[in-house]
Design goal:
Structural class: alpha/beta
Strand order of the largest sheet: 2-1-5-4-3
Number of strands: 14
Distance between the termini: 66 Å
Radius of gyration: 27 Å
Number of helices: 17
Shape: flat
Largest sheet: 5 strands, antiparallel
Amino acid sequence: MNFKELKHLPEYDNVLVVDQNGITIFYDLADLHILKHIGLKPEEFLRKSVTSFYKNLPIEESTLMTVLKTGEPLWNIKQQLTSNNGFTYISKSSTFPLHNGTSIVGAIEFSKHYYQKENIQLLDQFASHKMYRKNNTIYTIDNLVSQSNIMEEIKNKIKKVSSTDSTILINGETGTGKEIVAQSIHNLSNRYTQPFVSIKCAEIPSSLLEHILFGTEKDTFTGTPDFLGILEQANGGTIFLDEISAFDIKLQAKLLRVIEDKLIRRVGGKQDIHLNIRVIAATNDNPDKLVKENLLREDLYYRLSVFQLDLPRLSDRKEDITPLIDYFIEFYNRHMQIKIEKLDDQVKLAFQQYNWPGNVRELKNAIETAYNNASSKEINLNDIPAKIRNYSSVLEKKSFTENNFNLKDKVEEYEKNLIVIELNITGGKLAETSRRLGISKQLLKYKMEKYELR
């Protein structure tokens, strides 16, 4: 390949980090479409040997592997690389070792890519997103933290439907994770390099909704400029319409045409515009109820619900509370000035007893509240929101006042709750659960059978 026949794209700067074994642990590619062109998804680029992506890159010729071996930096090295799917380009890179004391623990490489002239037109057609997750998304399926069977089934459905272009209706109460599900579908689909555009329909006045959705055509008489609607902004990607029933019936009819014909007409416009978009909609209320109340057109409902996902309330998947707590603690340990190591057992019990009307979002907010109140590395009962603390207290008082007080029953009830909490923490591992409870595995099995926990 003649280097003079290549064109430099100065905007496209890349960063790649590998560990001491040459396994990729971080990357920031200036254009996500590079991955797509060499036949990889973003997740496939991590936790793999850096030489495994190329046909013509043996270990001894890899700049990263050489730096790991010698401990010496390499400057402005040009390499012609051919990916496993046959795509060829030239990389100009500078590579440096990463030290921990006297040990080399990894290497970091900064690179620019050069392309043959015939590839430039193809690259220029791509969207301007600079790296994965900068397609207007922040969530992937990994953010759907769970260990319950019902959520695992939902995640399996998400993976299946992501490979199609069918419209999707997500039904779930506030805080159940509808936005996370929608973004997960987009990022698992072949549209992941294109925009994900989300609109909360209920937050926009109905008088403006049509203009925001469809855009406006320039009017020389009134001086109204062209305005690109969000449907056009999502062209090539995914549009997520949250609280779809907030559309008035007339606008729902126009949306039906968008879904069926992939055509829109700007407000004031005279020509149809063809779109290539996937539509995902969501509702907080039962869609059958919305249809009966004439808040959702029946034909639009049927068109949207080609594939319907019904998200459970957190109270219906309480086995997910513990992994969610661990996830949010890890999150806030990274983002706040205090580090929490554990929750008091009373807090765990209160979280298990509470009914969580605000679902996962309320749980996250409760953890954040506790961080702001905590005075040590352990969250105690006084740190959590009062309504959760009081709910647990009311339950206990109600339990003690109902029927006749029976100490044996109360002790067994408390024991059962503790076992449930620890089983959730360990993911049902009996040996670890018995160790945490300070009892034998055989005794734990007996108590689980006694309380019908098996």
